[in-house]
Amino acid sequence: MQKFNKELVADSTFYIFFIEDSKNSNLLCKILNSFKAHISPTIYDELKMKSRDQELNSIINNKCNIFKDSRIKYSEALRPVFSKEELKKGEHEIIAIAVLCDQMVIDFVLVIDDEGPRKIINSHFKYLLTRLVRTARFIEQCYSKYDIFENGESIKLLNDMKSSKFRIDDKSIEQLLKELEK
What we know:
The protein is of the alpha/beta class and about 180 residues long. It is built from 10 helices and 5 strands; from the N terminus they run E-H-H-E-H-H-E-H-H-E-H-E-H-H-H. It has helices at about 10-20, 25-35, 40-50, 55-65, 85-90, 90-105, 115-125, 135-145, 150-160, 170-180; strands spanning about 5-10, 35-40, 65, 110, 130-135.
């Protein structure tokens, strides 16, 4: 398995897609074995509740950087930018982690699907836009750019996404599938 110097900062939608929507936590394991992932406390708690895959849980607990030290309030400076609902969902945490990674000159990819946080990045943290992708694009890149997945694995995941409750329009999925079929 290839290990990249590039790191991963992703929202809960990304992780939950693999665990619940596609039921392919083994492919999430391939990603987490290739990238060093940074996980917020809110997302970590959600993953603990939802994941029953022992291999995935072991990778998360042993290979990922989990921001769970309650003495460090790393996301407090960003609180004024977020609504109460976004704070409850932990959206500010993932953007705060991305800001920290950027400040530490870490090469990372930022996977966020929800429009609210994406708008906040576009309004307040434009320098993160070059790192920002959606889960569907990242799945395509896991084949085309990072060589983590076989082409068929990416295609299957995108088809799983298309038939799941994942919020993405069919046109976007079809475009990515066309790119994979080239």
